[in-house]
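Tokens as discussed.
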């Protein structure tokens, strides 16, 4: 241990001989490690944010969306065609094994009136299972019941944003609001969920029984989508396949023809949401690798120059009894110290840069411990890899020729 400490001290004295050259040599490692830490922090933060937003959808949610059909050369996207019916939703609930929750969905943007205040928000028709499906608790009051759905009841549940716009700080429970001129009694208030992955406010919403929405408000007999909840995450793939098979049978879609519906799971939505972040992370990671490579080449170059400059010193050491492995160890230690110092500075810069980006641009960033350890180990590996050849060259010098070197 004492011998190793002595070697490190000698290496640090050698590097201090030309501070500017040492700093410029470390610059490539600093940039590379900082870019690596920053890339991992941004990518990890983005992934965690998407996972948190996906979690607001509920547990094991499967979404079946209307649309995705072509007629007369015209293509209809999501929700653009009346291809899902209430009968389809009931069949999915009753005939697909593994489905434990089901909520049909119809929605529209509507002006809501409460007293002398009004607010434009999204009115969505749902079933009594919607809160269980979305894992969305009530802040106060009661939710829609199955009896409300059967009776086309004029019962409304408000999101936090809508409640604040219409009732400010007072409780909306028991109040009457008007949706398209139809009076609804407010029965419950939802807990705040914040924004979704698209940046939309999930709390700016009014929930009503889907039967009431279809018959009294929107006058439609088709659904925009059907939200289903699987009992276990391991069942999602099988449940998804059963959903597609059942709907193709019900819609009489011939083999080889495109579906007139779309089935999406939380995993697929998360993958789509993070695809851009993954591309940017890969690009920044490639740049970081190039920076590390350049930094490693810089270390090799400077160590070769150092061997040339210190040829006479090496000869003296060999002449007074130093072994070749001692020379190898000394120069290799200098390369590793140089690389590790650059790596530590790069880690600090990368963490600081991540924090600055989070503060300045409100980007989600998170620096995992393994990223810091990886940056440290990677910088050490670069020092060993690119420092070995110069160290070996120094160890192989002939003592007599080295002493004669001018």
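Sequence:
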């Amino acid at each position: 241990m004492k011998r190793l400490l002595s070697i490190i001290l000698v290496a640090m004295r050698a590097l201090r001989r030309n501070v500017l050259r040492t700093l410029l040599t470390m610059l490539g490692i600093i940039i590379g490690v900082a870019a690596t830490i920053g890339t991992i922090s941004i990518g990890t933060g983005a992934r965690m944010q998407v996972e948190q937003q996906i979690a607001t959808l509920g547990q094991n949610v499967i979404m079946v969306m209307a649309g995705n059909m072509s007629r007369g050369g015209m293509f209809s996207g999501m929700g653009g065609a009346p291809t899902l019916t209430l009968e389809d939703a009931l069949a999915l609930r009753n005939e697909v094994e593994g489905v434990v929750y089901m909520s049909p969905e119809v929605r529209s943007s509507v002006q809501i009136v409460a007293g002398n205040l009004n607010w434009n928000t999204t009115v969505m028709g749902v079933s009594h299972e919607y809160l269980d499906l979305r894992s969305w608790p009530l802040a106060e009051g009661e939710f829609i019941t199955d009896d409300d759905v059967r009776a086309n009841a004029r019962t409304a549940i408000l999101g936090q944003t809508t409640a604040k716009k219409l009732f400010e700080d007072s409780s909306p429970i028991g109040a009457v609001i008007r949706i398209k001129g139809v009076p609804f009694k407010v029965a419950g208030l939802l807990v705040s969920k914040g924004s979704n992955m698209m940046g939309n406010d999930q709390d700016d919403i009014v929930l009503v029984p889907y039967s009431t929405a279809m018959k009294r408000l929107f006058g439609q007999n088709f659904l925009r989508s059907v939200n289903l909840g699987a009992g276990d995450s391991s069942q999602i793939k099988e449940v998804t396949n059963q959903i597609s098979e059942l709907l193709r049978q019900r819609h009489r879609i011939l083999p080889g023809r495109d579906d007139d519906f779309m089935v999406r799971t939380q995993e697929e939505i998360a993958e789509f949401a993070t695809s851009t972040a993954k591309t940017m992370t890969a690009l920044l990671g490639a740049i970081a690798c190039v920076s590390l490579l350049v930094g490693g080449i810089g270390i090799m170059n400077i160590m070769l120059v150092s061997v040339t400059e210190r040829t006479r010193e090496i000869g003296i050491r060999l002449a007074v009894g130093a072994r070749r492995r001692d020379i190898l160890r000394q120069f290799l230690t200098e390369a590793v110290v140089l690389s590790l110092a650059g790596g530590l500075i790069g880690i600090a810069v990368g963490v600081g840069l991540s924090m600055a980006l989070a503060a300045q641009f409100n980007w989600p960033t998170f620096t995992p411990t393994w990223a810091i350890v990886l940056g440290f180990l990677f910088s050490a590996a670069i020092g060993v890899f690119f420092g070995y050849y110069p160290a070996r060259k120094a160890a192989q010098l002939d003592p007599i020729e080295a002493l004669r070197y001018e």
